[in-house]
Amino acid sequence: TVTNATVVSTPQEGNLVIQGKHRLANEIERIVQEHLQYVRESVSHGWDLIHQEGEMKVYRREVEENGIVIDPLKCFHTIKGVTGHEICRYFWEYQYRMEWETTLDSTKIIEVLDPDTVIFFQLHKRVWPAAQRDSCFWSHIRCISNSEEDQPTWLVVNYTTPHPLAPIKSPQVRLVANVALICETIINEPPLNPQDIKRENLECKLTYVALINPGGWVPSVGVRNVAKREYPRFIKRFTSYVVDQTRDKPILF
Ligand code: H13
User: Which domains does the chain have, with CATH numbers?
Assistant: First the structure.
């Protein structure tokens, strides 16, 4: 069903559908802007490098709130042969998720807010310390053009939201998350004609930030060990998956 849309009749264009804002539009705008701000902040004091492998660097800041570990995590990586759009598309699209996610039992879309924004309900594996957890979050994909010449920045934000179709059923514990994947595309040795750009000219600079509250007490050593193992594993597996999937496909700019 279409909501928030108004059909107007105009003498010149005939019937026209005007799409109104949905209920989460303002919140999404605010969180997207916060991430774009935060992504430019460099990692300095307080951030520990917890994993380095090739071009990948994973940092975290140890933070606890009422004895619960909520360590912010930030990962930088550079991937050859893909665009930022491709990385973000494969992260956002529901149909690929179970092929690269190793920490999920299930995922489903419970609402479509607009063509770039959906609400997911997910059941997480018990790799998450202690009891099984679930999550309910809006997921938004966006392209931001910086200038006429530059390649645009692509981003996906996942942000916890309540939903009537996903009530919290105790003893199930809900994760509270604010996660962003932000990608820029670099074109090395650009050919004169943009049509001649090959995958070997492409490089994607990826930043992934995760602020996740486990939603209840879990032993801090356990959460920190799981995080240290699982985040690098996810970045490696997910980015190689996109490289494999796109290798023989036309470039998606
Ligand atoms: O970002 C990742 N996956 C997204 C798509 O499935 C969903 C994610 C999300 C997580 C939790 C709540 C809402 C959304 O954005 C990849 C996630 C990899 C997670 C690695 C496990 C780390 C465990 C850390 C424990 C902290 C409590």
Answer: 47-246 (3.30.530.20)
